[in-house]
UniProtKB/TrEMBL annotation:
Active site: E25, K159
Keywords: Glycosidase, Hydrolase, Lyase, Manganese, Metal-binding
Reactions catalysed, as given in the entry: D-ribose 5-phosphate + uracil = psi-UMP + H2O
InterPro entries, per the entry: Indigdn_synthA-like, PsuG
Cofactor(s) needed by this chain: Mn(2+)
Origin species: Rhodovulum kholense
Annotated HAMAP family: PsiMP_glycosidase
Name assigned to this protein: Pseudouridine-5'-phosphate glycosidase
GO molecular function terms listed in the Swiss-Prot or TrEMBL record: hydrolase activity, acting on glycosyl bonds; metal ion binding; pseudouridylate synthase activity
GO annotation (BP), single: nucleobase catabolic process
Length: 299
């Protein structure tokens, strides 16, 4: 049984021309946002990448094939589907072998992007160490992936539902460069600052691209995590979001495993009257623009 990897015509042409490409994930579509805003956002994010001069490659597994670049009808089918598998490093191979359809998390998207020869990837917020991990042991596979797969991931930090100090500690242990873009602080997804100093600060896409190249020259296996603070006009200040996170955690205490993050995001959407979704959309779009700039410098 061969591994099948399909490129959209646009991505295939870009690869042939060594043109800049930005990978995009699909779990944010299937598990991160409600229909129909999920589809609108996915299309808007792709448009941001194109407007910045790069080609978007939304990644998902459809019928046991990895797709790098999804046709609009395939993207719509994923966005509408219910009960789609959320694939990470642990279950990607099994999904391909069984011929199933699933969306890819940050970890799985990094694996597929590397296979497709794509070095830059934009998402919203990565997974990390959950609050209470000292008893639950719930730590996202996204962190391990950043340590072993050479893709630069542009995010607005780790999702603020997480324990951000512990997430930064684990990233340090794993040797993952954490770069805040034009900021001294590690961003906190819906808020511009987590109040925690970022280990590295870079002020230009060129600098981030140069650091990515240098890791390759050193033969280091992992990627880089870029934290791009949400645009000021779209942020939800930390003081406002924190009580909602505490409430959402209490309300979703029954969720476990892969359901924890989607349950928290869905509850926060309700508690905030939709504000978390608007902020999420704005930050993903901003990340797509920065990722495209980095891809342009790398191409
Ligand atoms: N960014 C968003 N919304 C999301 C995600 C990222 O703005 O829903 C997804 C990513 O696919 C990430 C996943 O890998 O959430 C983390 O899930 P977990 O905590 O179960 O590892
Ligand atoms: Mn988890």
């Amino acid at each position: 049984m061969p591994l099948s990897l399909s490129y959209s015509p646009e991505v295939s042409d870009a690869k042939a021309a060594f043109a800049p490409i930005v990978a995009l994930e699909s779990t944010i579509v299937t598990h991160g946002m409600p229909w129909p805003r999920n589809l609108e956002t996915a299309l808007a994010v792709e448009a941001e990448v194109r407007a910045a001069g790069a080609v978007p490659a939304t990644i998902a597994v459809v019928g046991g094939r990895i797709h790098a670049g999804l046709a609009p009808d395939a993207l719509e089918a994923l966005a509408r589907a219910e009960g789609v598998a959320k694939l990470s490093r642990a279950d990607l191979a099994a999904a391909l072998a069984r011929g199933i359809t699933g969306s890819t998390t940050v970890a799985a998207t990094m694996i597929c992007a590397r296979l497709a020869g794509i070095a830059v990837f934009a998402t919203g917020g990565i997974g990390g160490v959950h609050r209470g991990a000292e008893t639950s042991f719930d730590i996202s596979a996204d962190l391990q992936e950043l340590a072993q797969t050479p893709v630069t991931v542009v995010s607005a930090g780790a999702k603020a539902i997480l324990d951000l100090p512990k997430t930064l500690e684990v990233l340090e242990t794993l040797g993952v460069p954490v770069i805040a873009y034009q900021s001294d602080a590690f961003p906190a997804f819906w808020s511009r600052s987590s109040g925690l100093a970022a280990p590295l600060r870079m002020d230009s896409a060129a600098e981030i691209a140069a650091a990515h190249r240098m890791r390759g020259l050193l033969g280091l296996p992992g990627g880089q995590l870029v934290g791009n603070p949400i645009p000021e006009e779209d942020e939800i200040p930390r003081a406002e979001i924190e009580p909602m996170i505490a409430r959402a955690m209490a309300d979703t205490a029954g969720a476990s495993g892969k359901d924890v993050t989607p349950a928290l995001l869905a509850r926060l959407y309700e508690l905030s009257g939709g504000r978390t979704l608007e902020a999420n959309i704005a930050l993903v779009r901003a990340n797509a623009r920065l990722a495209a700039e980095i891809a342009l410098r790398l191409a």
